[in-house]
Predict the structure.
Amino acid sequence: MTPYNPAKDGAQMSFDGRMSYGDYLHIDQILSAQQQLTPAHDEMLFIIQHQTSELWMKLALHEMDAARRAIAEARAPEAFKMLSRISRIFEQLNSAWDVLRTMTPADYTTFREGLGQSSGFQSHQYRLIEFAVGNRNPAMLKPHAHRADTTALLQAELARPSLYDEALRHLARAGLPLPAEVLERDLSLAWVKNEAVQEVWATVYRDPVRHWQAYELAEKLVDLEDYFRRWRFNHVTTVERVIGLKRGTGGTSGVSYLRRMLEVELFPELWHLRTVL
């Protein structure tokens, strides 16, 4: 068989002075960012797992920012595709835990001391995602206080409406009776379940045809939280499988801290209304 020659099919083969795949994606910079601090084999897995997760989180934030702007500008249907994409991103993040779980406790101990006090708890992008969806706590600015630029990003996020705030404002513009105290609340604080808001969402679910856009928005939010909860659960399971009940490298209580996070509801009314329908 004659060897395949891609040039005959018109493939570009010379890139002197021209943009290549590696140039466009800055592959050299990406592939040189894995700097092990120990000779341990599994440290490379640990580094790449977390670096790729940060890239997926960057995309999630990009999509969430656009989705919020679309909802605020009465372009909710455009936001639905972005919200679906965020759910798929968290599906990717979930799959990544499957790879990390191939690392045993014995493997992890070979490089854990090299991590120092670094921890995923300190990820400012994860913090931005939590703030963006509505799980806001100004006290969580403290782990980032050593970086003025990062702190400024987080403070700016606390000052703007969360994804859930924008969804509720969308309901109000559609003529649904949202309480004034909800629409005028302190945006920097975490959302607290509100019975009046639950009743508004219940109205949407009782007559989805009449409130179809709000109904579809609600289901997109439920999808997003569903995948987010799975990510948290897989995080807990992976950490317990690797370090048991030891403290995390960042000083948290490890598994017990992560278990508490499983109890956090991002859009509580959308889950609780199912009981009353």
User: Anything to note?
Assistant: The chain has one domain: 41-114+121-276. Residues 38 and 79 are 44 Å apart (CA to CA). Residues 212-243 form the longest helix (32 residues).
